[in-house]
Predict the 3D structure of the following.
Amino acid sequence: MLVVQKFGGTSVGTLERVRAVAQRVLDRQRSGDQVVVVVSAMAGETNRLIALANGLHALGQDRAQTSGSDSKGWVAPVKRDDPDFEREYSQLVSTGEKVSAALLAMAIQDLGGRAVSLIGHQLGLVTSGSFTNARIVSIDAANIRRQVEAGTIVVCAGFQGLDEAGNVTTLGRGGSDTSAVALAAAIRADSCEILTDVDGVFTTDPRIVPRARKLARISHEEMLELASLGTKVLQIRAVEFAKKFNVPVHVRSSLHLEEGTHIVPETPDMEAVLVAGVALDRDEAKITLTNCPDVPGTIAEVFTALGERGVVVDMIIQNAGRSGFTDMTFTVPQADLERTMSTIEGLALAQAEGVSVIADAKIAKISIVGVGMRTHAGVAARAFTVLAEEQINIQMVSTSEIKVSIVVDEKYGELALRALHAGFKLGE
Amino acid sequence: MLVVQKFGGTSVGTLERVRAVAQRVLDRQRSGDQVVVVVSAMAGETNRLIALANGLHALGQDRAQTSGSDSKGWVAPVKRDDPDFEREYSQLVSTGEKVSAALLAMAIQDLGGRAVSLIGHQLGLVTSGSFTNARIVSIDAANIRRQVEAGTIVVCAGFQGLDEAGNVTTLGRGGSDTSAVALAAAIRADSCEILTDVDGVFTTDPRIVPRARKLARISHEEMLELASLGTKVLQIRAVEFAKKFNVPVHVRSSLHLEEGTHIVPETPDMEAVLVAGVALDRDEAKITLTNCPDVPGTIAEVFTALGERGVVVDMIIQNAGRSGFTDMTFTVPQADLERTMSTIEGLALAQAEGVSVIADAKIAKISIVGVGMRTHAGVAARAFTVLAEEQINIQMVSTSEIKVSIVVDEKYGELALRALHAGFKLGE
């Protein structure tokens, strides 16, 4: 069979690990499979490159600050979302994967195998959109196919492509997962293995719930919900690609050979399982606006302004309060809290009489995910019962087709997760 | 005018220096010139990348040594001149210049300029030959020209190109000089500036002879002789390119704006200057074979064997001694001395009765270079007189059209250099 194996930065973080990966890949080939490898940069390398760019930029700012303005008067403040800058940034940070790809190919050769690394134009991966958060539009896999069919192990630099003008582009954080799944789709691989430092996808975080159980398989839809919720085993775009192009993905450990979790299309029998997993997210913050005038456009004003500042809002709840007024609560990533507050304080709404704006970063969001919810009522009700038995107060609830999310006080987050994991019998 | 400026690894060795280079380049553009920049990797970066490759290889050897042979029996010793390995090696080490090119483009942008870095396929530099010591065969400069004419500063990654199959290739040590001159030829630049940590080309090494004088100009032929002789300001292939394509090269300091040395085609008035410079080379060793049978083919046997082992022989002297026998002396790089001796000891000649082989690494070679020698006799004679006055014994002499090389005992090397520098009035 033809398999794509993707190894993350930790798996190639030292020369010893690069060699171990080379051995594993070679063993796989010797077992009779054709192997295409996708690698991330060595752990720490991408950060080193980013630090160079930031260090350079900081030099400019220091100088501007100490000298006031340059004698020639043309030291412009750098716009970080300048496309020219982003082009160079991608050119810079993409070198990390080029290095690890070449090293892995060498290591395979050292062990007696045949290997070639592919980067940039050699990959045939064409993107569009921005330089630093590019989308894959096409893959010309002829080169990869030819090499693989000649018995060579092909090592692809992850995270990168070229746009149609030939500029180097990058796929955003975790982009190597997306590279792997997209390449697997392009070469019609029988499997795309994501080799990582965990054993697979669990019913919940095993560090918090020791009885968490590794799932043998999970649907794309469930994985999409879990990937967006702190179960950081796989980039969400990679799951979307896998779903769209029907690529069988196998998340497994890079440290041993045991089976991990297969991410598969939904099948009817999956609905027999009510809940696939529960996830905890402690990285959100809650903002409450009370006593807003209940007139059309109030919500639109807030979320348009936040959208323009690039803040991604997660949960939104609006309740009519006393007549003519409304309360509104929503959550944003904690990292965006400051930006969110300054945006809201700049709105006319926030200045209106009686309106108060309250931020609370001490929250935890627990999400219950499962395709079985589509056909089974009562998941939310059972969750509320479980939490009530533990005396945990519910602050917010939002539901989607296959997910129920509940916000509680941060200090009850882990307790709630354990209770729900047990309540839905996920450890069994 | 259109100028190519090449900055070496020391000039971009820190972020502060990258910024200083950016400022210099931008000042040049603002003075009204169009600028194309060629950069080396940041000082130390290429060595870091080579250390990664060597470290990986050493892991394989350690394992092979400690475990005898691998249980599967297929751990082959790595052939370092394996093309597959060399391909990956070039892919790896060429990332250093990609990083510095992107950083320099960013730094120019930070200072308010427009810049773009070009790497790999974006450069249009096509090579042939080996992966790690490739030769430039063509340059498609359309992309560079278009960018420059749009007012953008183009920053090219030096040292690298692509072969016709699209593999990354590198041009060998110091290859960025060659990149710069070749690109200057391709875009018909008015000047190719090599910016370095010395002020230009001197009549001799200023660290040894304080009265050494910077030359305002020097011919390609003289520079070729000096470049091959320890005056390491410019890679010899770069000078050959400059000569072949008539590229005006200007070697100057990256630290200040003073004029350096212009490398120019020979003009008649240059012959009025007898000697352009004297150079000292302490990196050679001398091998003497005495009492060789004086039959045809003796010399051929020795030098054919050395050529096959990749040893580059510099000076060769043969003297007939007593009837039917001959003595032969030649020099090789000290780094190749061991290989040279083992090669000679393996020849039938070395086993012949009476033949002795003597190696001497304690020698110094002084070379006197100048196109004026073509029309003026007596340079060798004056050199011998100068050395005799200092009581320095001459061990070997060889002459070419514009060069006289003299081998002396190593301990007299600096004294000889100073005496010849004064004797030919080079400090005046």
